[in-house]
Design goal:
By secondary structure, this protein is of the alpha/beta class. The strands form two sheets. Strands 6-7-8-3-9-10 form a six-stranded mixed beta sheet, with helices on both faces. The protein has a four-stranded antiparallel beta sheet with strand order 2-1-4-5, covered by helices on one side. Strand 9 and strand 10 form a beta hairpin. Helix 4 runs antiparallel to helix 7, helix 7 runs antiparallel to helix 13 and helix 18 packs across helix 20. The protein is elongated and about 125 Å long. The protein starts with about 25 loop residues before the first helix and ends with a helix. One of its GO terms (molecular function) is ATP binding. It is a multi-pass membrane protein. It is found in: Cell membrane. This is ABC transporter ATP-binding protein.
Length: about 625
């Protein structure tokens, strides 16, 4: 852009925060306070599952059935020992034992089948919710204004879409069944233990409060580490996107800075490794203690049962002890599962906050509720562009700095070729941003076809405007696919007509794959002139009433410039054309030339009129002619 004040090196959106050592607790608390605070976060997370109520209800039913069935095996185990293996008569009762064992197998098979069905349901719901969340975030980002993307590193945006949404995948796919299943299983096991022997139940559960407190502390630590881990992933993604793109690799190779980039990436990778290890180890001591405790309970139960039998305080049988320890062992896994889910939920809160932070961003430029299409607004002046006392300053510009455009007024009639020239930073390119409402005027109004652009639907407005910029962007796809980006249903004949009009058809058919030629990332398999002419053909396929040329030939050599300029001249015929020009030789034939300096239009007229006026334009033209002569 021509002007707009300094742009921070790190975007104001999604800016990576400083990393603080674990030893500085006070600084760490201050750092945590800077994390995004999202109101009603849990309610919003649960709202993600609203479209899947039926599947969730079925899942709940399956979980309840499975939990109920899980209570039966311990009770059957007790009967198998007391009535089948060691009945009062002393000899095993095989018919009873066979019936009990068969019933246990039926319960196990049924529970396993229900578990498979339950897993399929939760995996389907979780992944659909995650996919919908990713698409929702991508859709929201598409609606953001241009300034959001000029202030945010592409890698940071990619990290929100990939790392953050992917980071909550396990929570979305496993949380429902895990929370419900483990909760019901813990309750069922607890009930079964009480039914078997309440004294042994008290012994087994006496240390549970200590584990809950320890779990909460571990969860807080892991949540902080998770937030730092995602910030580090964002930084790594940004470095990768910047340095491994074609432009980035060309820059690093041309300046021999590969080692610098390797060092930068390796340093962030080391930080990521450290954080990943910390995240995985943060709860391991806690879970190790829990495992030791729960694994020791059977031995303690045996000891306590022995004391109770000796004291005559209970009539506990061998079957009761075996059944009780079986239930206690089955209690351990759902209990650990619940604790791990609690930790995962705490850890994922930071990720959900980052996702909703982006979803809560409000686009600065939005259609009004009563916005009309260009056709509804009337097309009597279609192609007319007018600035009425427009003043504009970029959002990040300092308050004391001068505006990029200052009280600018002009009118371009339908079919007229208008050029904007002036020194670098004068505000020329900003004019091309305001016409399609990529930015919005601070004061004054921009009119298209007689209507204020703020009263028009932006998509309808942009449909009538074609833009060819200096930095041509082509996708890593075929020439035909790049052309059809402007008109997806274009026929081959329309592609060829647009390519001929842009003076690129003969070049395309000289390639072995013709229109099926893959252009490479950003079109790097083509020359600058070829890329630019394909971009012109793409705009011609759109067939807009207004054509905006933003220094479309300034990066080309003289021969390519002449070829592309000829294509541009052909493309401009019959259209309103706004040309932002650095080389004045390309606009000498313009119907009107506006000279911009310091954000104001200081002169306007034809080439001959401005030369005769001997003002700013004449001096610029003389400097360029002399520069060309010296260069020649």
């Amino acid at each position: 852009m021509s002007s707009g004040g300094p742009i921070p090196q790190s975007g104001t959106y999604g800016k990576p925060r400083a990393r603080i050592s674990n030893g500085d607790a006070q600084a760490q608390r201050a750092e945590n306070a800077q994390a995004p605070k999202i109101p009603h976060l849990l309610k919003r997370i649960s709202g993600l599952f609203a479209p899947h109520k039926t599947a969730l209800i079925v899942t709940v039913v399956l979980v309840l059935i499975g939990a109920g069935l899980s209570v039966i095996p311990p009770l059957l185990t007790q009967r198998a020992f007391d009535d089948g293996l060691f009945p009062p008569g002393g000899r095993p009762d095989m018919p009873v034992l066979l019936g009990l064992v068969g019933l246990m197998i039926v319960v196990f098979v049924t529970n396993s089948l229900l578990g498979v069905w339950q897993t399929w349901l939760t995996a389907t719901v979780g992944n659909r919710v995650m996919g919908a969340l990713r698409v929702r975030l991508f859709t929201h980002l598409q609606a953001m204004e241009l300034s959001f993307f000029t202030h945010t590193r592409t890698g940071v945006i990619q990290s929100r879409l990939q790392n953050d949404v992917g980071g909550v995948a396990s929570v979305l796919t496993n949380t429902i069944s895990s929370v419900l299943g483990n909760t019901v299983n813990v309750i069922a096991a607890f009930v079964a233990m009480l039914l078997l022997n309440w004294q042994l139940t008290v012994v087994a559960l006496v240390l549970m409060p200590i584990m809950v407190i320890a779990q909460r502390r571990v969860g807080q630590v892991r949540a902080r580490i998770a937030a730092k881990t995602q910030e580090s992933l964002s930084e790594m993604t940004a470095i990768t996107q910047e340095t491994l793109s074609v432009s980035g690799i060309l820059l690093s190779k041309s300046l021999t800075r590969q080692n610098t980039e390797i060092t930068r990436y390796a340093a962030e990778n080391d930080n990521q490794v450290r954080l990943q290890v910390s995240q995985q180890m943060s709860g391991q001591w806690f879970f190790a203690l829990v495992n030791i405790f729960l694994s020791s309970i059977p031995a303690i139960v045996y000891l306590v049962a022995g004391w109770l039998v000796l004291d005559g305080a209970t009539d506990v049988t061998a079957g009761t002890i075996v059944a009780f320890t079986t239930v206690q062992a089955r209690l351990m896994f759902p209990l650990l599962g619940l604790m791990r889910v609690a930790l995962d939920l705490q850890t994922s809160t930071a990720l959900f906050s980052r996702i909703f932070e982006y979803l809560d961003l409000k686009p600065v430029i939005v259609d009004r509720a009563d916005a009309k299409t260009v056709a509804e607004a009337g097309t009597a002046e279609l192609g007319r562009v007018e600035f009425d006392h427009v003043t504009f300053a970029y959002p990040d510009a300092a308050e004391e700095s001068r505006p990029t455009l200052d009280d600018v007024s002009f009118a371009i009639e339908p079919g007229q070729y208008a050029a904007f020239v002036g020194p670098s930073g004068a505000g020329k390119t900003t004019v091309s941003y305001l016409v399609p409402r990529l930015y919005e005027a601070s004061t004054g109004s921009v009119r298209f076809a007689g209507a204020d652009v703020r009263d028009l639907q932006q998509q309808s407005l942009v449909k009538h405007i074609g833009i060819v910029s200096q930095e041509t962007y082509l996708f890593h796809a075929t020439i035909a696919e790049n052309l059809r980006y402007a008109k997806p249903n274009a026929t081959d004949a329309e592609l060829e007509a647009a390519a001929r009009a842009a003076n690129i058809h003969n070049t395309i058919v000289s390639f072995p794959e013709r229109y099926g030629t893959v252009v490479g990332e950003r079109g790097y398999r083509l020359s600058g002139g070829e890329k630019q002419r394909i971009a012109i053909a793409r705009v011609l396929l759109k067939d807009p009433e207004v054509l905006v040329l933003d220094e479309a030939t300034s990066a080309l050599d003289v021969i390519s410039e002449r070829i592309v300029q000829a294509a541009l001249d052909d493309a401009a015929r019959g259209r309103t054309t706004i040309a932002i020009a650095h080389r004045l030789s390309t606009v000498v034939g313009a119907d009107v030339i506006f000279v911009v300096d310091g954000g104001r239009i200081v002169e306007s007229g034809t080439h001959s009129e401005l030369i005769a006026a001997d003002g700013t334009y004449a001096r610029l033209y003389e400097q360029q002619v002399e520069g060309t002569a010296v260069g020649g």
